[in-house]
Write a structure and sequence with these properties.
The structure holds two protein chains of two kinds. Chain A is 78% helix and 0% strand. Chain A is mostly helical. In chain A, helix 1 crosses helix 2 (20-44). Chain B contains nine helices and no strands. Classes of the chains: A mainly alpha, B mainly alpha. At the A-B interface, helix 1, helix 3 and helix 4 of A face helix 2, helix 3, helix 4, helix 6 and helix 7 of B.
Chain lengths: 78, 181
């Protein structure tokens, strides 16, 4: 696998769309390309952020936050 | 995130205020159930609190990390509850409308986020519908290429090509947008 192909696969990898047989080959290439590969995969995770930011934010009730903060503060105390 | 790593509860409160809308929208897009989305949102922020020490700014931005975590949890939740059938039904009954926007006056930060959203939506909308659909099923439904092929009655190779081309266009589009964002 050359690096261009690895880049194509990386974008599929970060969204979990590589099939099992492709994943094995991808992991081998990932080792082969080392830091360059890791840096590129890191950049591809920006796609996650972009897909989330493409959505209209949704409302959630204040009760959710209150419950969350109560749980966090309780844990801190224990 | 540094403050949260130091177990500062007020920092988590601020993080929640800033990003709960985005993460809830993402969860809703996956599971299509308001009550389950609220429960999951709470669990995800609890996980953010518990896992904050694993976040490294060298590996990316906090939002990216949180979105990755939220998406994984939402897709896991969908699978565990075997809610595919119910979600499918709801999805078909729903219009393409996104959840309601916040109703309060927009802050400067929200306006920036809104601009960002429009720019990203423009990039995604520029893709052919078949590529958009393949990416939507893979990202928001957690489907494999084979599952997408079966669902859309499309050859596996075509699905792969659609995903590769679509993701490349979005990736390249985002790189161009970086100057504007």
């Amino acid at each position: 696998m050359n690096f261009k192909e690895f880049q194509n696969r990386s974008r599929l990898y970060v969204i979990g769309a590589l099939e099992a047989e492709e994943l094995e080959e991808f992991e081998e290439a990932r080792k082969k390309f080392g830091k360059k590969a890791e840096d590129y995969i890191g950049e591809c995770y920006g796609l996650h952020e972009a897909f989330a930011l493409s959505l209209q934010p949704a409302k959630s009730s204040a009760a959710i936050k209150n419950r969350l903060m109560a749980m966090v503060r309780t844990r801190k105390e224990t | 995130m540094t403050a949260i790593q130091g177990e500062d509860a007020d920092a988590l409160s601020q993080l929640y205020d800033r990003y709960n809308g985005i993460l809830k929208a993402l969860i809703l897009r996956v599971i299509h159930n308001e009550a389950e989305a609220d429960d999951l949102l709470q669990e995800i922020f609890m996980e953010i609190w518990n896992q904050a020490k694993n976040f490294s700014s060298q590996k990316g931005k906090p939002l990216g990390w949180m979105v990755t975590l939220a998406r994984r949890r939402a897709i896991d939740g969908l699978r565990k509850k075997q809610a595919y059938a119910r979600a499918e039904e709801r999805l078909q009954n729903e219009t393409e409308q996104q959840p309601d926007a916040w109703v309060h006056n927009a802050t400067e930060e929200e306006i920036v986020l809104s601009d960002t959203r429009h720019l990203i939506q423009k990039v995604i909308a520029g893709l052919p519908p078949a590529q958009q659909q393949a990416i939507d099923l893979a990202f928001f439904r957690g489907m494999s290429q084979r599952e997408i092929a079966a669902k859309t009655n499309t050859p596996l190779g075509t699905v792969k090509t659609r995903l590769e081309l679509g993701l490349k266009k979005i990736y390249d589009g985002l790189k161009e947008l970086r100057g504007e964002l």
